[in-house]
Amino acid sequence: MHATSLPMTLFSAYVVTFATVALPNPSTVAASRVALTRGSRAAAAFLSSVVALDIVVFLVIAFGLQPLLHGVGGTKLLMPIAGVAMVVAGVVMVMTAPIAVRRMHIERAAPAPSPGRPSIQGPLLGGILVPSANPGFWIWWATVGTSFIHTAHQWGRPGVGLLLAAFLAGVISWYVPLVFALRRGRDVMSPRVLRWMLVVFGVAMVAFGLNLLWRIVAPL
After folding, report:
1. Alpha carbon distance 174, 23 (integer Å)
2. Residue 74 pLDDT more than 70?
3. DSSP state letters, the chain
4. Where do the domains of the chain lie?
5. Is residue 125 pLDDT above 80, yes or no?
6. pLDDT (tens digit, 9 = 90+) per residue, 190-217?
């Protein structure tokens, strides 16, 4: 893993992050519901809180948890777990792409809650509570996210800063079009395009995971 170049690490981080948020998840579904009940500005506020939480978790891991894990040798166990997690996530993404796209459209077409009973009390607070209550959010950061941070540390703080930028670029590349689509009452892209996109990114995640596992096994 240490032989990985910085550009490759950043590109992998961008692709994996984009693929993760593009797959229907609680935050995307909740943002759609907020847009239906309170408008696109509320959805933008909700997603801004989601991104803010990501930044906080990233900083805590990068300058707190990761150095601690590295000090006790925990990163040696983390790397293969992260590789397996990426492979599994990629396979699941490919296998469930049609179901995920269909589910997304069902959620978008479902009747909106009445204004007197909003699904989320306060978009900014909801943007923190929804991902925090999602176990997948913490599993991703504890495995895949931490492994990327561990790799970026070999280039010092500039590498960690660029990694954060790559993570944010991946998130924003999906959330910005999502907000504009919600404002117009449309989907980000057609079901067919989204399905193929999930398949392509799923295959990419499998490739990155296998590459990570290979870099661990090869020196042995």
Report:
1. 10
2. no
3. -TT--HHHHHHHHHHHHHHHHHS--HHHHHHHHHHHHH-HHHHHHHHHHHHHHHHHHHHHIIIIIHHHHHHTTTHHHHHHHHHHHHHHHHHHHHHHHHHHHHHHHHHHHSPPPPTTS-SSS-HHHHHHHHHHT-HHHHHHIIIIIHHHHHHHGGGHHHHHHHHHHHHHHHHHHHHHHHHHHHHTT--SS-HHHHHHHHHHHHHHHHHHHHHHHHHHHTT-
4. 6-217
5. yes
6. 667 767 777 877 787 788 778 777 777 7
Contact 34, 43 (CB under 8 A): yes
Residue 134: both structure tokens together: 């999602």
Query: What would the two tokens of residue 6 be?
Result: 């910085």
Residue 193 identity (one-letter amino acid): V
What percentage of the chain reaches a pLDDT higher than 70?
75
pLDDT at 10 over 50: yes
The arithmetic mean of pLDDT across residues 42-48, rounded, is: 88
Determine if the pTM surpasses 0.90.
no
